[in-house]
Amino acid sequence: MKKFVIAALGGTIAGTLLSVQVAPLLAEEASKPASVYQELDLFGDVFRRIRGDYVEQVDDKKLIEAAINGMLSSLDPHSSYMPADEYDDMKVQTRGSFGGLGIEVTMENGAVKVVSPMDGTPASAAGILSGDFITHVNGESLMGLTLDDAVDKMRGPVGSEVTLKIVREGKTEPFDVTLTRDTIKLTAVKGRLEANTAILRITTFNDQTFPNLQESLKKVAEEAGGIDKLNGVILDLRNNPGGLLTQAIAVSDAFLDKGEIVSTRGRKPEESERFNATPGDLAQGKPIVVLINGGSASASEIVTGALQDHHRAIVVGTKSFGKGSVQTVIPVQNDGAMRLTTSRYYTPSGRSIQALGIAPDIVVPQPPAAPETDKAEDTPETRSEADLRGVLSNDSMTEDEKKQAEDERAKAEEAAKLRLEDFQLAYGIDIIKGLAVAGQTLVPVDEPKAAAKP
Fold first, then answer.
1. Domains of the chain
2. Alpha carbons 237 and 372: distance in angstroms, whole number
3. What is the pTM of this model?
């Protein structure tokens, strides 16, 4: 089997069966004061006491699985054990279709925190936001549970309802949100044309991300009349929690001709790897803007860091999540698997974004959505010279020129409307427009400046 690594807060991929030479390890440890033998004896003694003396009868399998998961989860928030059923679910997710609410979550100080809601899912429709904390599911507290156990509480049959209690920054009291579970079908990339700019919304990094990216950009370019008609490209990575490392590398490579994309460094020097770009740029040198926010994590940060360090893109939005580690999913006995943090990753300049995140080149917060009552209010009617009775005609423009001026005004009004709907996206489009008007593009650098060392 092939070995894969994931760069996400959640995700599933097939890994290799890891064989461990236990005997040499035990022999080496035997000389130490607290040997592995003694520690295993301690574990066995505790296990026997629980089986024999606990107030209720325990399930041996569940007890051992809990011990394994406790061992892994004590390492970091992203290492964990997956029993066979969870492992099967995770493998399905990387293929892009599964049942659930459409929320990526992580653990923060023992609480379940939303990394991002996925586009077009019950969580997104219900208004769940990145940074929300989920404290209860159907009235049952999640405090003290592992992340996998908390996620289990949120799972259920498609069509069934679940009520989440949410704690949100800026709200004085927790509040309940009721969602209906649905089949989550993730389209990795959605493309559209906006003001002669290709908008590529990347929601996840699964097996389909790079093929979807190629196809989406091709369709948008055809709609514009050819890629030469495009002003530039916007990669929207907001609320993208990550996914497969291989796909993050492929997406970065799509817009870089050469140079390092990312490096990973494990515990041993020989486990370090560097991934470099190959010739070819899908955007053909057009300017690129990358949109990020606090829900952009891991694989999203790899792409952002690579394009930012090479000066291939301008990064707009707010600081990203800050997950700079890579997990390997390793199948074990009984058809389960463990997700183990095996390396850290570094951007081309050598910086680690672990617990720091990526700072945008231009910080642009997203204004909160206006209440429906505000949207419904009529704006005052304005009048111009053209509305006056008996107005003089404009004798300096032909009918075709007048039509062109009207078209340009309509486009400007659409752009103003977009600012109300999605200010960050509108800001990115304005940057692309400005570069196009000035006849400028972004000139990539082959060797990014090395990150400063403390």
1. 99-185 (2.30.42.10), 187-325+346-377+394-454 (3.90.226.10)
2. 27
3. 0.81
Please tell me what DSSP assigns to residue 178: E
Question: Amino acid identity of 82?
Answer: M
For the question of residue 309 being annotated catalytic, the response is: yes
Query: In the structure encoding, which two tokens stand for residue 78, read together?
Result: 């992203």
Kindly name the residue from 132, 182, 309, 422 that is annotated as catalytic.
Answer: 309
129-162: per-residue pLDDT in tens?
999 999 999 999 999 888 888 988 998 888 999 9
Nearest to 345 by CA among 271, 294, 417, 448: 271
Sign (positive or negative) of CA dihedral 93, 95, 101, 104: positive
Does the active-site annotation cover 298?
yes
**Strands 288-292, 232-236: pairing kind:** parallel
Q: What gap in Å lies between CA 48 and CA 63, rounded to an integer?
A: 11
Strand, helix or coil for residue 301: helix
| Active-site residue, from 252, 296, 298, 343 | 298
Tell me the C-alpha to C-alpha distance, in Å, between residue 39 and each of 29, 35, 75, 332: 11, 6, 18, 22
Which residue is catalytic, options 323, 325, 349, 422?
323
Tell me how far apart the terminal alpha carbons of the chain are, to the nearest angstrom.
Answer: 41
pLDDT tens figures, 351-392: 999 999 999 999 999 998 766 555 445 555 667 766 677 667
Q: Which residues pair with 330 in a beta bridge?
A: 338
